[in-house]
Amino acid sequence: MESSVLESIGVEIIGVMSPVSICMFLVVLLVYALSPSDPSSSSSIRTAANLVYLENATDSTSQKLEGALLNALVFVILIALVTFLLVLLYYFNFTNFLKNYMRFSAFFVLATMGGSIFLSIIQHFSIPIDSITCFLLLFNFTLVGVLSMFAAGMPIFLRQAYMVSLGIIVAAWFTKLPEWTTWVLLVALALYDLVAVLAPGGPLKLLVELASSRDEELPALVYEARPTMPRNASALAFLVAGFSDSGSVELQAVSRDNASPNQNDSEVELDSFSSNGGERNRDEGQRLLLVDRHSSSSDSSVSVVSDRARQFGSAGSEIVADEEEMSPLVQTTGSGNGREQLRRDATEMFSRGIKLGLGDFIFYSVLVGRAAMYDLMTVYACYLAIISGLGCTLILLSVCHRALPALPISIALGVIFYFLTRLLMEPFVVGTSTNLLMF
Question: Which of 59, 193, 215, 322 is the catalytic position?
Answer without folding.
Answer: 193
